[in-house]
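JOB MANIFEST
job_type = single_chain_structure
chain_count = 1
residues = 314
[input]
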Amino acid sequence: MVGASARLRYPFLVGLALVAGLTLRYPSAIAANWARLAIINCLWPPPTVALACQVSGQTVLARALRQTATSSDSAERARFWGYTSDWARLRSDYEQASTPIKDPLHLHWVGLAYYNLGDTEAAVEVWKRAPETANYWMHVCVAGINSQRWSEARQACELALRIAPEHGQARAELGRVELYGEGDARGALVAFAAAEVLGGHNAITWLAWAHALDQTGRSAEAAELLETHALSGPLADAIRGNALRQAGRLEEAILMYQQALAQNDCDPWFWHALAATYVQLGNEAAARAAWAEALALAPDFQPALDGLAALGPN
């Protein structure tokens, strides 16, 4: 019969071997996920997973796990749930707190939890409790971008940068405001370049930078940026199509636009790009059909109206 101490030791050792092996093989992707599963489901104690993370180079997560294992402080728990992206647990912990949370970093994590769970208004209300932090104003800027409140978004980004001039993500978000809210692609390029120096980009702002390059006629550079950061999605594919069309590779461009439209057929610009390429290939019937799709989405879409006018009567 296996003794009690052996029963306790066996899952600990198996857990250590399994988590360590996985994190060594897939350090960036597995560490956080297995740490979360291990702690939340009580499969293995936090020190076990912390050691595995430390071995695989995940020192930040390892430190957070050790703090979680030894502290009953809700701010420490919030930091752990944030590192492991367990937004539901972080929100629940906050809502069940017996005393008001005042720590700015804790409030930052809680705001991120609400934001990532789709409750932007609640996120902003939480961030307002620490309004003098650059992160607060940066997230207000993001909320403004998402709701297309452009002047509010610009003001928030500028406040973030006034508090912390080297806040890279705020600089990148300002680029998005300039690109999408103000139509200033060249100004956006300046902001995106500054954000790169400050290390402030994420997948969304890298894509916006590529979009700004594309809008200023630098489609090849845009496509290169997309490849460098392994960006995908309908906008990325449409930008790649523009680069191919600019390089004269029209058949390949058609395929790329079709790939973009397979993911999102509600953007008239994608249909316009496809139509313009068909015109270059001499396929007027296909061009007319693509522009008709664009006008079905936006009856006043001027590029499609101009394109059809240039073709003349059907």
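[summary]
Confidence is low (pLDDT under 50) at residues 1-56.
The two ends are 88 Å apart (CA to CA).
exit_status = 0
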